[in-house]
Amino acid sequence: MLIFLFLTLIIFTLLVLVVNNGDFLDPLCLSCEVFTFSTFIALLNQKTWQLEFFSAKTYFTIILALVFFGIGEIIIKIFFSKKLFVAHKEKRIMLLSQTPINLSKKLTLGISLMMLVGALQILKKTYEISLQVGNTDGVMGMLASARVAYIYTDLSLGTDLAIFSFLINAMGYIFTFILVYNTVHFGKRSFSIITVFPIVVFFFTAALGTGRTVFIRYIVVIITMSVLFVYQKKNIQKTSVPYLCKLIILVFLALIIFFTFFQILGIFTGKTGNLTAWDTFSIYTGSSISAFNNFITNYRPVSHFWGNESFYGIYGILNKFSSYFPNESIHLDFVYFTSIYKTNVYTSLRSYIYDFGFIGMCVIQLLIGMAFSFCYMQIRKKRNNFLSILIYGYFNYGLVMQGIEDTLFRSFMSITQIFELFFIIIIYIFLIKPKIFIKNDSNLVLSNEVKV
Q1: 151-176 as b/e, with b when 16 or more CB fall inside 10 Å?
Q2: Interatomic CA distance for residues 353 and 62, integer angstroms
Q3: What is the dihedral angle through the alpha carbons of 370, 372, 374, 375, rounded to the nearest 10 degrees?
Q4: Which residues make beta-bridge pairs with 342?
Q5: Mean pLDDT of 64-75
Q6: Residues 6 or more apart whose Cβ sits within 8 Å of residue 251
Q7: What's the rounded Cα separation, in Å, for the pair 353 and 72?
Q8: CB–CB of 285/41 below 8 Å?
Q9: Span of 69-78, 250-259, 260-269, 349-358 with lowest mean pLDDT
Q10: Nearest to residue 205, comparing CAs of 168, 175, 179, 171?
Q11: Residue 73: which pLDDT band, with cuts at 50, 70 and 90?
Q12: 125-133 long-range CB contacts below 8 Å, 24 or more apart?
């Protein structure tokens, strides 16, 4: 049955690609792509993981979820086609600079130094935490021990350093925005090595967090921004096959680089164990389909707090004010394929079904399809909405992770997300926007109904 699921998803993906003129970032198309990819990896490991049974119920659940996502997208496209959503004309005309975003060297170095000081404080605190849980291997054993502490104890960086780490993350995204914007619009000549300094500090700080999901989000943000910037610059409405193939190759190269770093970081944090690079890649990208099959096969509705898994982020904040709201661990139970291979990721659908049932899952998929399609079509129809592209790329991570686990709802309105988005918006308004949109300058062109 797994092979039938893969073939069906291939057909779905190709049909959606054709209907959307080859736009592989279209929300429905992206959803089909990630489920197809995860299913393909699961299929390649079917013998290794000893997956002898794949339920027809799992097959129909995944297809049904994508169908309802697609219905949500179709509803929004019908509204757009009938012009029920009309972009309001801006009250003031903005002028779009014809030069790259160039922050002063002093400012960039000052920001980099500030980030570095904060990163070193986080390093010191992380090392102290690792010692508290028995780290005897010095710096080499720091990340593995700190990860154990974060998962199984109440030890943490503390409020001040946590907020500073969110600021560092936001700076990382902002300077990545500068790098991508300049490269797409002005080519390699606009590259400045000094712009990379804050990004390097961001990587260093992210690694100290012991998790690897922040790097997945970073890759998604880069790819999303790059493609949408190219779409806007060249006014691409239909993606040709050669151009689509070029984009896919670039995405795969980015994935190879990322998973190389992913494996190295996993060794230092103790998450990789004795698994090979291929095993690690497969577990993280394909085991979710097999685990979801296990969940569906043995599913029995249980009584629990409504939305307990899906609204982990929101409930975590509300729990600070009232113990009525749960604040439980988001780590799900492991599914063991063999004595070596195990996983605790189940696709995003598992949480929706667990919290809201099968009907609730369909409603959730419908709403996600409507929300993402509305935002995506707004971005495609308007020009120069650069902040919207950055924020969309940030949330697009949840869409990309659908085939692996639910991060869209779990992280929604979490403390991390609130602070990171707040810092991103504030920094963009004060540092980036004045460099892109200027009122009076001889080296300017008029933008078209700029939405900022």
Answers
A1: eeeebebeeebeebbbbbbbbbbbbb
A2: 11
A3: 160
A4: 336
A5: 95
A6: 223
A7: 18
A8: yes
A9: 260-269
A10: 168
A11: very high
A12: 125/157, 125/158, 125/161, 126/157, 126/208, 129/155, 129/156, 129/157
User: Does the pLDDT value for residue 75 go beyond 90?
Assistant: yes
- Tokens (6 digits) for 240: 């040709």
**Helix or strand holding residue 368 (H, E):** helix 348-381
- Residue that the structure tokens 């939305």 belong to: 307
Check pLDDT > 60 for residue 89. Answer: no
Has residue 91 got a pLDDT over 70?
no
The two three-digit tokens of residue 229, written as one number:
């910037």
Q: Work out whether the CA dihedral 345, 227, 262, 408 comes out positive or negative.
A: negative
Q: Are 311 and 406 in contact (CB under 8 A)?
A: no
Contact partners, residue 277, CB within 8 Å, separation at least 6: 259, 260, 263
Here the tokens at position 221 are 């943000």
Q: What is the pTM of this model?
A: 0.86
Helix (H) or strand (E) holding 261: helix 241-269
Instruction: Dig out the tokens for 173 from the structure.
Output: 């995204």
Sequence-distant (≥ 6) Cβ neighbours of residue 123 within 8 angstroms: 208
The rounded percent of the chain whose pLDDT value lies above 70 is 87
Paired tokens of 224: 């999303």
Q: Phi and psi for 342 in degrees, rounded to 5?
A: -150, 165
pLDDT at residue 187 in the model: 85
Name which of 244-248, 282-286, 431-435 the model is least confident about.
244-248
The torsion angles phi and psi of 115, rounded to 5 degrees, stand at -65, -40
Between the alpha carbon of residue 122 and those of residues 125, 126, 161, 204, 370, the distances in Å are 5, 6, 7, 10, 40
- For residues 345 and 403, what is the distance between their CA atoms, to the nearest angstrom? 9
Q: How many CB atoms lie within 10 A of CB 241?
A: 9
d(CA 194, CA 199): 10
Residue range 372-395: mean pLDDT, rounded: 89
Asked if 197 contacts 112 with a C-beta cutoff of 8 angstroms, the reply is: yes
Residue 348, CA distances (Å) to 53, 209, 406 in order? 21, 23, 4
